[in-house]
Design brief:
It contains five helices and seven strands. By secondary structure, it is α/β, with parallel strands linked by helices. It has a domain of 127 residues: Oxidized Rhodanese, domain 1 (3-Layer(aba) Sandwich). The strands form two sheets. The protein has a five-stranded parallel sheet with strand order 1-6-5-2-4, with helices on both faces. Strands 3-7 form a two-stranded antiparallel sheet. β5, α4 and β6 form a beta-alpha-beta unit. The N and C termini lie far apart (38 Å). 35% of the residues are buried. Keywords: Signal. This is PQQ_CXXCW: PQQ-dependent catabolism-associated CXXCW motif protein.
Length: 182
């Protein structure tokens, strides 16, 4: 099991910076960009070094949950809107807008389908969730995955900010097809 080998790595990597944020009982709402807790009950919290080792092993599904920037409501007629490109961890699957406190049934189905796809329908397959540093979206989705019955869940609270800081590779990725509202 990957968790056993990771325990030694986590001890060597050191603890994440103490932020003094309590783990909430339920999903977190706005503001989503705010200090996050050090824990997520039932998940293994990893830093950039540990996430990179898991990525190199290629045995963990990496799931990016950064929300898609909303289209401004008052764009003048005829204005062309282009989504901002997402630079993410190579090989990741992007499931945008799945990390809000409350999600529509269509968005929950999109998340469930995406997770089933990246884990080949195996709720025991290891899966790692991330977004940006100090972003509650990944915490919320990792918690949802645990509640859906996924048993080997990793949460990477530093997200692509911490990954880029370590100079690990990033690549442009597209959202998984079927995203509600697109």
């Amino acid at each position: 099991m990957i968790r056993a080998g990771l325990a030694v790595l986590l001890l060597l990597a050191g603890p994440l910076a103490a932020q003094g944020v309590a783990e909430p009982e339920y999903y977190r709402g706005e503001p989503y960009r705010a200090p996050v807790p050090e824990t997520l009950t039932g998940a293994v919290v990893v830093d950039a070094t540990a996430a990179h080792v898991l990525w190199q092993r290629g045995e963990v599904a990496f799931v990016d949950v950064l929300p898609r920037a909303p289209k401004p409501v008052n764009l003048p007629a005829g204005t062309i809107w282009r989504d901002k490109p997402r630079l993410s961890i190579p090989g990741s699957v992007w499931l945008p807008n799945t990390g809000y406190e409350r999600i529509a049934p269509e968005t929950e189905a999109y998340l469930q389908d995406g997770l089933a796809e990246v884990t080949a329908g195996d709720s025991g397959h290891p899966v790692l969730f991330f977004c940006l540093e100090d972003c509650w979206m990944s915490w919320n989705v990792a918690k949802r995955a645990l509640e859906m019955g996924y048993t080997e869940v990793y949460w990477f609270p530093e997200g692509t900010d911490g990954w880029a800081f370590e100079d690990y590779p990033l690549e442009k990725i597209d959202a998984r097809p079927g995203e509600p509202g697109t």
